[in-house]
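name: query_chain
kind: protein
chains: 1
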Amino acid sequence: MDNISSYHFLTVTALNEWDWTSRIIFFSFALLAYLLTIVLNAALIMIIAFEKALHEPMYIFLCNLCVNDLCGTTGFYPRALVYLLTETNRISFEECIVQCLAVVYSVGEFTNLSVMAVDRYIAICQPLRYHSIMSPFTALSLVTFIWIFPFFIGVMAVSLALKHPLCRHDINKLFCEHLSLLNLACKQDIFQGIFNGFIYISMAVFFVFVLISYLKIILACRKSKVNREKFYSTCVPHLISFLNTTCGLSDSLLTRFKVETLSNIAVFFVFVLMSYLKIILACRKSKVNREKFYSTCVPHLISFMITTCGLSDSLLTRFKAETLSNIASTFLSVIILTFPPVVNPVIYGIKLGPIRAKILYIFKSPRINNL
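structure:
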């Protein structure tokens, strides 16, 4: 705990060059995004919780995803709104640690999405065995893992950040996260390297799970129109969420390990793009109507835009590009904490038939119409 006595407060420097006009504009958008995040995710959680027909593993995992989004955004937005609306750019060390826990815990979204990928693989590739494999006990075990793993990562990350005194107090991001604190420490030790290696290996294992699951799903979709329908309705939203989270994780990995090139990330996205190109070609040759084909392009375009933004932030982090303004670089750095929590409930609400039907039923109810 020596570092607490070294610096009682840390300084967030991301907004130093912002004028009041920019602050007010971004404050308005940030407040709107935060309110939308709370309303949309809370609504989806309530729909799944109160609708017995949705008490299935896929929707339970989706509910966990919404809870995770709420945790991450609640750890980020309140303090960011204070920074934007006032001249305060200091945060106490204790508050910074709490924010670190919230941000690191939001990485649990990636764990959740990996579990959801395996669930979709079983549902599409082994539908007759789905309920026997994805039993209530299995689903409960996976949900427990979704919560325990990021909690362990968060506690370990903060513990390592507390281990050494800080030699600097300036944080170049709009929020606290454990990598920023580690960069402020006076020295690094072998335990930090081992822990970061563990995170790297864990993320690689999750990547492999997701890629193998989607490869098998794609192969199954080529042979069955029913599987293609199921893929469009359940897997496309999941893939969008997965790409969202991937952008943020690639930024963190590049920051920590100082990767000299983006070749590994490029290979991953080339794989995704090639896979989707083949899916589009296969769908155009099938009897699926053109309207359905074009409806799937919208999620693909969203994914591409999110990926582009994420890679832009990664390039800025690695090469410290000076061509973009401080405002643009700050905006890119917080996309992973702000965009997915708003997009996820919208995409899932639109693409998943049972949830969409429940939403339409609520809006068509007499009580709503009489308001």
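note: The chain is about 80% helix and 0% strand.
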